[in-house]
Amino acid sequence: MCGIVGYVGPRQAYPVIIKGLQRLEYRGYDSAGIAIINGKINLYKKQGKVADLEEFVIGKNVQGHTAIGHTRWATHGEPSDRNAHPHLSRSGEIAMIHNGIIENYISLKEELTNKGYTFKSDTDTEVLLNFIEDIYINNGGNLEEAVRIALKRVVGAYCILLIEQKNPETIIAARKGSPLVIGIGKNEHFLASDASPIIEYTKEVVYVNDYEIAIVRPDELTLKNLGNEKQTPFITELDLELDAIEKSGYDHFMLKEIFEQPKTIFDCLRGRLNAEKGYINLSGVEKYLDEISNAPRIIIIACGTSWHAGLVAEYIIEETCRIPVEVEYASEFRYRNPIVNKGDMMIAISQSGETADTIVAIEKAKEQGAIIMGIVNVVGSSIARISHTGVYTHAGPEIGVASTKAFTGQLAALMMIAFKIAFYKQTISEERYLHLCNELSLVPEKAEIILQQNDSIRLIAEALKDSSNALFLGRGYNFPIALEGALKLKEISYIHAEGYPAAEMKHGPIALVDENLPVVFIATKDVYHEKIISNIQEIKARKGKVIAVINENDTVTPKLADHVIVIPEADEIIAPILNVIPLQLLSYHIGIARGCNVDMPRNLAKSVTVE
Ligand code: F6R
User: Fold this and answer.
1) 527 Cβ partners below 8 Å, 6+ apart?
2) In 145-168, which positions are buried (b, 16+ CB within 10 angstroms) versus exposed (e)?
3) Are 405 and 398 in contact (CB under 8 A)?
4) What pLDDT score was predicted for residue 442?
5) Could you point out which of 58, 159, 552, 588 has its C-alpha 20 to 30 Å from the C-alpha of 372?
6) Is 279 exposed, middle or buried (0-12, 13-18, 19+ CB in 10 A)?
7) Contacts of 376 (CB under 8 A, 6+ apart)
8) Is the beta carbon of 402 within 6 A of some atom in ligand 1?
């Protein structure tokens, strides 16, 4: 949610910042801007994409060695040139970019308005900037101190970067609740919301913590807390290759990431699951094996697609481990008065590891004595760091805004956790455990077979592209997959879609069915199979168009459905991880057929760091 990037060092800053903004564009694409110091601060910003900014600066002075850049996902104030970042202070001598929300900006604005300040934008950012400048004017022009004093008054989340005209070789940065990584080069530093803009210059990075201020010069990085005490920067080596953040010949990141799944699922299982020897080794679970096994209850929190992974996990954990599971939206949990008892286990699922609601929900449960296990994709992210233990999904950077490979990675990780605990607790037999381990190990090759259906799924998409609504139905383990299929379709193609448990259809949604309504059934072999066939018949009887995801040896469904997508059979517990893949492809192709920007759907951002 908003991408920020900064550079200070011997290079021309503009190309570094623009490239960085392109890499961060998945975080927000309402507007983009850059401020560069060259004697004075030259500032350029434009509504639209980074490409619009690049066009706008043609012929303008973009020389300079210190710069900050921003790509925006609008919170306060519509997407427009004047609300775009960076903002300039009243004197014009300080420029700032911001990712987050300043919740008390109205009272700060009133304070400043009473002192005669006026504002050019509708943003909370411009208020914070002038609040900082007001302190700066009164403290003899010490920006670092002004930032520190101002932040003590701020309520909300922020990652801010500031440059000032009189100190052309310094960037001041601070964070609370929004991510900041600093790359350490030779006499140069790179600042960004995530490592993707940094990776091609250096692998040495420092993840800045909440309530820290960084004073960044070409040859020096100083970290302080808000009490002005120096902190020791903890340097980490990035485990990321440039290739992982490029399209590598695919038309879109989303397609690349769908096709990466055989490998990313394999990477998640690698070194952890050994089906032949029949073991699952997850260091994050090993340490807490007794606590998890004896937990009176597991609470799963997440948002969006990650929440759907949590729902699948609920079915699997209750079935195999016999531990009661509740799945909650993090945004609801954080504002309720939930009952959390000491010893309860919380599993927090997040691709980015930065989702604001999930972070606050974790903190709340932690205070009440829960043990937190993070299922996170981004290494070193906030959720990974605040959890007691965890399992990384190892899906690699997910750039497409719609989550695909991160979801199947989450499912693979959650399945391993469930099977490990179930075997340890002896709530499943050894035979069943070995069978599930084996079935899970076969997922990468079966995923490969599903991807071979890409062309036939594209043809189905052609037939569906003009629909206005769609229904996704599944039962049991596949009910969450129906929800996920519907979410993918609506975010990528803007077709209104709903996911339902197939049996619930008769309690309302069936009223929508007519010859124009596509109904996607997840109808692979499981205990519900015959019931789902009855549901398909009910839709056909009302002239709905049926698209069914089925297994190879199903001879009944093809006679009923208008279109079938045939995929390899798997144990019903494992099947959701495979069944979602054709739905991802279907959404992708429908989105493309409708001319949508599938990598950057309107109004969305990859990492939701505001509540
Ligand atoms: C949908 C999607 C979102 C995210 C949600 C949570 O395709 O990507 O629904 O799943 O915003 O994000 P993370 O997993 O980063 O916490």
Assistant:
1) 476, 572
2) ebbbbbbeebebbbbbbbbbeebb
3) yes
4) 98
5) 159
6) middle
7) 348, 349, 350, 351, 353, 383, 384, 387, 390, 392, 393
8) yes
Query: pLDDT tens, 318-357?
Result: 999 999 999 999 999 989 999 999 999 999 999 999 999 9
Residue 380, pLDDT score: 84
pLDDT band per the 50, 70, 90 thresholds, residue 208: very high
Residue listed under structure tokens 């208008």: 562
> Class of the 3-101+157-242 domain?
alpha beta
Q: Which residue has the tokens 């490969």?
A: 448
Query: Residue 86: its pLDDT value, please?
Result: 97
Q: Residue 501's Cα: distance from chain center in Å? A: 26
Query: What spacing in Å lies between the alpha carbon of 431 and ligand 1's midpoint?
Result: 36
Mutate to test the pocket of ligand 1, among 26, 351, 375 (most ligand atoms within 8 A of CB): 351
pLDDT given at position 420: 97
Chain segment 93-146, per-residue pLDDT in tens:
999 999 998 999 999 999 999 999 999 999 999 999 999 999 999 999 999 999
Q: In whole angstroms, what is the distance from residue 524 CA to residue 473 CA? A: 12
Class of domain 252-441: alpha beta
Of residues 211 and 73, more confidence is placed in: 211
Q: What pLDDT sits at residue 29?
A: 83
Question: 582, 461 in Cβ contact below 8 A?
Answer: no
Which residues, including other chains, have CB under 8 Å from residue 513's CB and lie 6 or more apart?
A: 471, 519, 539, 542, 543, 544
Specify whether the CB–CB gap between 180 and 385 falls below 8 A: no
Q: Residue 284: its pLDDT value, please? A: 92
Residue 349 CA to ligand 1 centre (angstroms):
9
Q: Which residues are catalytic?
A: 2, 606
Q: Can you point out the beta strands (E) in 469-536? A: 469-474, 496-501, 518-522
Task: Please give the average per-residue pLDDT across 463-469, as a whole number.
Answer: 95
**Overall residue count recorded for the chain in this entry:** 611
Structural domain boundaries of the chain? 3-101+157-242, 252-441, 451-600
Q: Does residue 355's CB lie within 6 angstroms of at least one atom of ligand 1?
A: yes
Q: Do domains 252-441 and 451-600 have the same CATH topology?
A: yes
Under a CB-based contact definition with an 8 Å cutoff, are residues 235 and 205 in contact?
yes
> Average pLDDT, stretch 59-85?
92
Q: Does residue 501 line the site of ligand 1, with CB under 6 A?
A: no
Under the banding of pLDDT at 50, 70 and 90, the label for residue 77 is confident
* Tokens (6 digits) for 186: 């030779």
- The pair of structure tokens assigned to 429 is 């037999």
| pLDDT at 606 > cutoff 80 | no
Q: What does the pLDDT read at residue 418?
A: 98
